[in-house]
Amino acid sequence: MNKVFIVGIGQTPVSESWDKSLKELAGDAGLMAIEDAGIGYPDGLFVGNMMAITANHQAQFGTLMADWLGFHHKPALAVETACSSGSSAFRMALMAIASGEMETALVIGAEKMTDSPGSEITASLATAADAELEADFGLSFVGLNALLMRRYMHEYGWKHEDFSDFSINAHANAAHNPNARFRNPITRDSFTRSPMISDPINLLDASPVSDGAAAIILSSRPIQNGRKPVSVVASASMTDTLSLQHREKAVHLKAAEASAKTAYAQAGLSPSDIGLFEYHDAFSIMSALSLEAAGFCAPGEGPRLAKEGKIKFNSDIPVATMGGLKARGHPVGATGVYQLVEATLQLQGLAGPTQVKRNRYAMTQNIGGSGSNIVTHILQSE
């Protein structure tokens, strides 16, 4: 299998982009990555997106982007695995290069969520749940996560305010990221006073509806551009039941644990080797569950890591170093690629004020659904 390197990156600011269409946002990020790599058009295009059909009324998004970018007569593919679509697209491009099918590939993750009314976006997000067993009974995506959080609090004895440090940390880091949606710091008091969305999840527990796109060029060879080469040393994708009711244990992300263990085995690493973990903090409950499933703490101990300050960028296991989903924003199909772009910047020592101390290995974990499709990658600075 060929070694695979990240040789170009691009990202748009996460915001409400009223002046840009979905293809324009995706095209901007793609062109940034192509220019950054400086190797011309790659051999293939892989686009991660969840809601182009439902929110933007656009099918064939991969072909559309190939056309928009002048990427004709080369393979182009759209990939959908709900909120993990970006990482799934990255993984497919990675496998194409590692197998020798391609030498270079462009990965774009993109989502345009503000073109549709809030009720339509809520309905679109609910398609990541089991339609017959969950969505048809009126369970929204935030409702499913509220059930998880309520169960977690019951099993482990945590109070709602004990989750505040996840959001506080994300906002503190986003203040230094010019591409983040929310660059304002928050306090424990503002967290506890935030409006309730679906008890016990309040507004500051949840990531915002956003527009954005990020892109990466992958290659079988590193390029000389004055920056540290970054390679992909592990890639694992695992699934669990789509509905929560069929899980062996609702508050255990079994697919996250399996994908993390597979990634560690591929890279020959353990959790103690990871200097940065970009987790999928779409809701604060997912922050705790991801830390536990990936082996950074025991079950039920995720909130304690946050309360003790061990998740800060200059501490034991830095997370959400550029704001995470909570404060950078969560344009769902783009999120996995944003995570990988940010991890690349950290490994190259280009993360600015929130640069982590140990930047040899970084791990990203992107969650689709309520833990039903999870993709984990480990990157290494060469």
Q: In CATH's first tier, which class of the largest domain applies? A: Alpha Beta
Per DSSP E runs of 2 or more residues, the count of β-strands stands at: 11
Shape: globular
Q: What name does CATH use for the topology of the largest domain? A: Peroxisomal Thiolase, Chain A, domain 1
SSE blueprint and pairings:
Layout: E1 5-11, H1 22-37, E2 45-48, H2 52-56, H3 61-68, E3 76-79, H4 85-98, E4 104-112, H5 118-125, H6 141-156, H7 164-174, H8 188-192, E5 196-198, E6 201-202, E7 211-219, E8 230-239, H9 254-267, E9 277-278, H10 284-293, H11 302-307, H12 324-327, H13 332-347, E10 361-368, E11 373-381
Helix pairs in contact: 1-3, 4-13
Note down, in words, how this protein is organized:
This protein has 382 residues and is of the alpha/beta class. It folds into 2 domains: 5-118 and 210-219, Peroxisomal Thiolase, Chain A, domain 1 (3-Layer(aba) Sandwich); 124-208 and 232-381, 3-Layer(aba) Sandwich (Peroxisomal Thiolase, Chain A, domain 1). It is 35% helix and 18% strand. The chain contains 13 helices and 11 strands. It has helices spanning 22-37, 52-56, 61-68, 85-98, 118-125, 141-156, 164-174, 188-192, 254-267, 284-293, 302-307, 324-327, 332-347; strands at 5-11, 45-48, 76-79, 104-112, 196-198, 201-202, 211-219, 230-239, 277-278, 361-368, 373-381. The strands form 2 sheets. It has a 9-stranded mixed sheet with strand order 3-2-4-7-1-8-11-10-9, sandwiched between helices. It has a two-stranded antiparallel sheet with strand order 5-6. β10 and β11 (373-381) form a beta hairpin. α1 crosses α3 and α4 (85-98) packs across α13. The longest helix is centred in the N-terminal third of the chain and has 16 residues, at 22-37. It is globular, with a radius of gyration of 19 Å. The two termini are 18 Å apart.
